[in-house]
């Protein structure tokens, strides 16, 4: 696997995600553990300091799965918001965990549960809470 791009994560997201990780059940543990490693290597900043080109929680993102040659648009959400958000992807889904903290233009190789590796490229952020001053959503 190639080296991973640097990550920037909103402090409030990091705190909420750590609670989610701490309470993960057996079916989510593998992704939760990978997410925790990503949190540990990230730069954690106050919500007001998140650049507009960074994927944060509740961001709507256009990205390309380079392995499968598919462009997707998804909103990165906490598991409880999956049912109420159109085109949502959970942070506890392998692809969801891979997206957090990346910047537009970044590419990341991410292991999948079946042993394969996905390669994801961030094409655009279509909506980001911090950009719209929604710092405590």
From TrEMBL:
Residue ranges occupied by any Transcription elongation factor GreA/GreB C-terminal domain in the UniProt entry: 51-121
Pfam families, per the entry: GreA_GreB, Rnk_N
Residue intervals passing through the bilayer: none
UniProt keyword terms in alphabetical order: Kinase, Transferase
Molecular functions (GO terms): kinase activity
Gene3D superfamilies documented for this protein: 1.10.286.20, Transcription elongation factor, GreA/GreB, C-terminal domain
Tree of life domain: Bacteria
Entry annotated with the keyword Kinase: yes
Coiled-coil region(s): none
Residue stretches making up the Regulator of nucleoside diphosphate kinase N-terminal domain: 5-45
Keyword Transferase recorded: yes
UniProt-listed NCBIfam families: PRK05753.1
PANTHER family in the record: REGULATOR OF NUCLEOSIDE DIPHOSPHATE KINASE, TRANSCRIPTION ELONGATION FACTOR GREA
Protein name: Regulator of nucleoside diphosphate kinase
Source organism per UniProt: Litchfieldella qijiaojingensis
Source taxonomy: Bacteria, Pseudomonadati, Pseudomonadota, Gammaproteobacteria, Oceanospirillales
